[in-house]
Amino acid sequence: MSAVAFFSDVKAAPLPQWASAPAVTTVNALTLKECILRAFSRNPDVTQQAAQIGIGQAQIDEAQSAWYPQIGLNGNAGPSRQYDSSGSLDNSTSYGITITQLVYDFGKTSNNVKQQTAARDSYRFKLMSTLSEVAEKTALTYMEARRYQALSEAAQNNIHSLESVYKLANLRASAGLNSSSDELQAQTRIEGMRSNLEQYQAQLQSTLAQLAVLTGVKSLSLAAPPNGLTEQPVSLDNIDYGKIPEVLAAENLRQSAEYGVEKSKAEYLPTLSIQGAKTRYQTSDRNYWNDQLQLNVNAPLYQGGAVSAQVEQAEGKHKISASQVEQAKLDVLQKASVAFANWNGARGRELAGSAQATSAKRSRDVYRDEYKLGKRSLSDLLTVEQDVFQAQSAEINANYDGWNAAVNYAAAVNNLIPLAGIKEGVYNDLPDLK
């Protein structure tokens, strides 16, 4: 048996589940809302942030556990000798139970609970921020796909218009009213426009592939985006930073760091607790129980400067977290400002492109009539056809530049998800978000 035949008969081992490729299905149509929801359930960052909230809640439970009784069992086996005024006892075995209840620790536990609670809340806001980022990325990809769909349609319409010019030139050449070079010139323009169409189609397929990776589905049709995106009020003076997840996450981390300072300072103070124990001792002479109920006071006197160092570290973290709140505000303002400028610029270019397209279409109709009468050359007619397509392309690009700016602004001010038609209660239906 040859080596090729041998290896062809060997069956490949099945891939483990973690190594399988992400699934992508095909659907007939998608809306922006459906794309964003699918991206939520597919994006690993969303799942990770949701799991981080669970970790934060567990950290709160761990901090709160200090308030509850601490119960432990103990046991020892082996020789042990105790000396007292009456002599000595040789122990071979001891076992028992110990219960410790915290009474008061001057804010160590309460500040630790508050610190972990603030940290858990910051994780929640980070999840909201992650959802907004995923929604923004998905919406921008959605808009780009819509852009290339519109450009492809404009190129297809221009091809149909050029084909009618070609037929007109063919009729005039057959009647001897112009040379056959007009037909070649028109055919060249048609082929050039078909090349543009192929480029737009390739870009469309590439964008749809990106959208399929984000959502897990590949759609044959994309619905029009909601008008609410372009109708939202846009202003840089009335941004409510108290509702923006990035700022809220930074503020909660600042609060967490503040509680951390108070917790570190409380380490200078004693901790009071009640300890009860019942231990059974088995000796060489007799067996007996030892009962214990005591108030314990644990007060640090000197630890080599460890507590002071911990306080300094906590205060440093608090200063850093306070500056991060301001940095988050500046980041939001910068993003909103850029989106605001892009939005205004796109609206102006769209109006100019629309006016240019209307004028070019009117000129095309006039030139076509004049060409039929022999008052215009085919070159003039082809030039105005190119002007129509360029004006339409400029209008389409300006329109979708405006959509992209609207998406960026809505994401910056935490308004994108509701404008896409997604209500907050929908989050509960997503995997790992409960």
TrEMBL record:
Presence of the UniProt keyword rRNA processing in the record: no
Pfam short name (any one): OEP
GO cellular component: cell outer membrane; efflux pump complex
Residue ranges the record marks as coiled coil: 183-210
Location relative to the cell: Cell outer membrane
Keywords per UniProt: Cell outer membrane, Coiled coil, Membrane, Transmembrane, Transmembrane beta strand, Transport
InterPro entries: OMP_efflux, T1SS_OMP_TolC, TolC-like
Annotated GO MF terms: efflux transmembrane transporter activity; porin activity
NCBIfam families: type_I_sec_TolC
Family: Belongs to the outer membrane factor (OMF) (TC 1.B.17) family.
Protein name: Transporter
Organism of provenance: Trabulsiella odontotermitis
